[in-house]
Write a structure and sequence with these properties.
The complex is a heterodimer of chains A (387) and B (331).
Chain A: E1 20-24, E2 36-42, E3 45-52, H1 60-66, H2 72-76, H3 84-99, H4 105-135, H5 140-163, E4 172-173, E5 176-177, H6 185-208, H7 211-217, H8 225-231, H9 236-240, H10 247-250, H11 271-294, E6 318-326, E7 329-337, E8 343-349, H12 351-356, H13 359-362, H14 368-378, H15 382-386
Antiparallel strand pairs in A: 1-2, 2-3, 4-5, 6-7, 7-8
Helix pairs in contact in A: 3-4, 4-5, 4-11, 4-14, 5-6, 6-11
Chain B: H1 6-39, H2 55-65, H3 76-92, H4 111-119, H5 122-132, H6 136-167, H7 172-178, H8 193-208, H9 220-223, H10 233-258, H11 271-290, H12 298-329
Chain lengths: 387, 331
């Protein structure tokens, strides 16, 4: 049972009734989207925080009932638009599980390559925006941000030559993937990975040798092991709190069992631990992609015939829950199919949504400036929170 | 040369200095943007005029044409007055800076005292802006401003006093004159003391100018834009002008106190050019720091000042005094 008192207000009792209720959001430079935090302040210290979400609700789950299995993957991209590949992945996995559809090995490997590239791209954006939260858009934070965006571009270029789109892809299809890799793509991918591998070291040198960065990140926003388990946070946050849990390892999907990689763990639970976890994940993702590229089998990219109409894919009656490890944690898709070309019902489990619910537990007691640092370290994407 | 009546000089000199400062501010923003862009592997302003040279003019024109918004709940008089109260001290500091021997508005006997006193007056304007806006972000920022100025003015003054002790004069012209002749006469090359004082001066300058990593007043990631969040149009431009004028003034002061002011190779007539270049160097040093660090928290800033910087500058000041007495009188 969740201990309700951990949400409690931190009473300082030196300001008496002189409290300031301040609205951060829904339009705020560091809200990472449309998030509203109603913070109660005593001086600079946050006493209580009330998180308000729902500003980006687009009825995704209802929308899924009206779109066919061939149409929805490109809409699934729009739930978590920073890691679009991930949500498509979860959707098609659920449909395949109900329909017991096999996926050719080559398609499975291509899925893994794209999912891991997406993880790198998403973490790059996270690193940039988080540093911008701490360093200011007119300061060193913006410098890191632009460096990260520069590297993310190279990955988006890869996606563009593969899919034709840079943000929302529709690459995953029930039964396989939509496109095979074009000629020369493997080489381009390898050189991009090499570049990013070098640049990640540069970021670490720039940040970890910087006492100001350490002062802002270390010991701030500590999520204890118990709290992490109670709230049900996932992904780098959970691993930053000392719990070794990764869906790729716990319930391998799409041939993840074939690859050799490690799950980074940090035990401190603070912003710096989460940062370290993600920095190691950059390298692990690069290792996985390299292995997949090396062993990429020949063969078809889909077990189903090429699409001639959007209603061509029909999934038999049944229900399934599929989950993948996204950049922000476990992304789940629960689907009920009724034998037609559209799912009967569908439900998303967004990683950002459950991660965000930890904020009221850890923010009180910190300074105003830490609110944005902690929020940035949680890495919420509001498309995924509100759906 | 026809004799110019002294009253005319009194009018002409400030007029010239003010206009030069405004011109400097416009173009130093372009320099900063270009410099930051290079650091971030960008190009920076490029479209307006060749290499973006007309960009500052376009920005100024844009700000002039913006609607001037006064929030309904604002304290109108305080709100309207604040940018001017902020700007005046930032401009006044140029009154006492000599740009070459005898070239300046007025080289006061207590020049540096005047400079330090006036430059800390800007806090009044800051607080008025934060209070008058009747905005919570602005109010928090104003509170931080008072905290920060109180904490950093002392280290700023102490580190600026080191060259004063070395020179034995409060007159900026005298301090500069003592550093002429050779590179080794610059106070930054005074063994140990000079370098330490310079580092502390730069740190305190960063805080006094509200630059990253000490820009908690503006702190746009938490306080949106801090004390100037409600300002638009010309009032915003005035605050911006004041901020950059203050920065240029502090850079001039740093160049004068530590880098030998107008000393440099070539005839004495190009002295002001050297001074200007050194000012730009000081400015770029601060800019370089600004664009590579993250901001630290308000409480960490205060801790840094009271626990580290203040004792350090005080100790340095005392050491300097002892060294100077020892070198002139012996034990």
């Amino acid at each position: 049972m969740l201990d309700r008192s951990s949400v409690a207000r931190v009473e300082l009792d030196w300001a008496g009734p002189e409290r300031l209720t301040m609205n951060m959001g829904p339009q705020h430079p560091s809200a990472h989207g449309v998030f509203r935090a109603i913070v109660t302040l005593e001086g600079e210290t946050v006493v209580a925080v009330d998180a308000v979400i729902g500003y980006l609700h687009r009825c995704h789950e209802k929308l899924a009932e009206t779109l066919t299995y061939a149409q929805y993957p490109s809409i699934a991209s729009k739930t978590d638009y920073v890691a679009a590949m991930t949500s498509e992945f979860a959707y098609v996995l659920a449909a395949e599980e109900i329909g017991k559809i096999d996926v050719p090995k080559r398609a499975q490997y291509l899925r893994v390559i794209c999912a891991e590239l997406q993880r790198i791209a998403s973490h790059l954006l996270w690193l940039g925006t988080w540093c911008m939260d701490m360093g200011g858009a007119l300061g060193g934070g913006a410098t890191i941000f632009l460096y990260c965006i520069r590297e993310r571009e190279t990955i988006l270029d890869l996606f563009e030559s593969l899919v034709g789109a840079r943000l929302l892809y529709g690459f995953y299809q029930v039964g396989g993937v939509r496109y095979d890799i074009p000629s020369g793509w493997t080489q381009a991918c390898r050189s991009t990975l090499e570049l990013i591998e070098q640049r990640v070291v540069e970021y670490e040198r720039m940040l970890e040798n910087n006492p100001f960065f350490l002062a802002r990140a270390k010991g701030v926003g500590v999520i204890s092991r118990d709290l992490a388990q109670d709230i049900g946070i996932a992904g780098p946050l959970l691993r930053g709190s000392g719990i070794s849990y990764d869906v790729r390892r716990a319930a391998p999907y799409s041939s993840y069992g074939d690859f050799d990689f490690s799950i980074p763990i940090e035990t401190d639970g603070d912003c710096f631990a989460r940062y370290r976890v993600r920095m190691v994940e950059f390298r692990q993702a690069i290792t996985i992609i390299r292995q997949a590229l090396d062993r990429l089998p020949e063969g078809p990219i889909s077990s189903r015939p090429a699409l001639k109409s959007v209603a061509q894919t029909r999934i038999p009656k049944g229900e399934a829950y599929a989950r993948v490890e996204g950049p922000r944690g476990e992304v789940g898709n629960y689907m009920v199919a009724d034998g037609s070309a559209k799912p009967y019902r569908m439900k998303w489990r967004g990683a950002s949504f459950s991660n965000l619910s930890v904020l009221p537990h850890i923010i009180p007691g910190h300074k105003v400036a830490d609110v944005v640092a902690i929020m940035g370290s949680v890495d919420p994407v509001f498309g995924e929170v509100d759906r | 040369m026809a004799a110019v009546p002294p009253w005319a000089m009194l009018l002409v000199a400030p007029f010239v200095v003010l206009n030069v400062v405004v011109g400097l501010v416009t173009y130093i923003t372009l320099l900063e943007r270009k410099f930051a862009a290079r650091m971030q592997s960008r190009i920076g302003p490029y479209r307006v005029g060749p290499h973006g040279l007309l960009q500052p003019i376009a920005d100024a024109l844009k700000l002039m044409m913006k609607e001037d918004i006064v929030p309904a709940a604002a304290d109108r008089h305080v709100f309207n007055l604040a940018p001017i109260v902020f700007l005046i001290p930032c401009m006044l500091i140029f009154a006492t800076i000599p740009f070459a021997p005898g070239l300046g508005v007025g080289d006061l006997n207590i020049g540096i005292l005047f400079f330090l006193a006036v430059s800390s007056m800007e806090i009044v304007g800051l607080f008025m802006a934060g209070w008058g806006s009747n905005n919570k972000y602005a109010l928090l920022s104003a509170m931080r401003a008072v905290n920060q100025i109180i904490s950093y003015d002392l280290p700023f003054i102490f580190s600026a006093l080191v060259p004063v002790i070395l020179a034995g004069s409060l007159k900026l012209g005298d301090i500069a004159a003592l550093q002429q002749g050779s590179l080794l006469h610059w106070f930054i090359f005074y063994p140990v003391i000079g370098q330490l004082a310079f580092i502390m001066f730069v740190v305190a300058t960063l805080a006094a100018e509200n630059r990253v990593p000490f820009d908690i007043l503006e702190a746009e990631s938490e306080l949106v834009a801090g004390f100037r969040v409600e300002y638009s149009g010309m009032k915003f431009a005035l605050i911006q002008l004041g901020e950059y004028a203050h920065m240029i003034g502090s850079s001039f002061l740093g160049a004068l106190l530590f880098l030998g002011a107008w000393s440099g190779p070539g005839p004495e007539s190009i002295g002001p050019v050297w001074f200007l270049l050194k000012m730009v160097f000081m400015f770029l040093l601060v800019t370089w720091i600004r664009w590579s660090f993250v901001r630290i928290r308000a409480d960490q800033i205060l801790a840094l000042s009271w626990k580290v910087l203040l004792p350090a500058t005080l100790a340095l000041l005392l050491t300097t005094a002892v060294v100077v007495v020892w070198r002139t009188n012996g034990f």
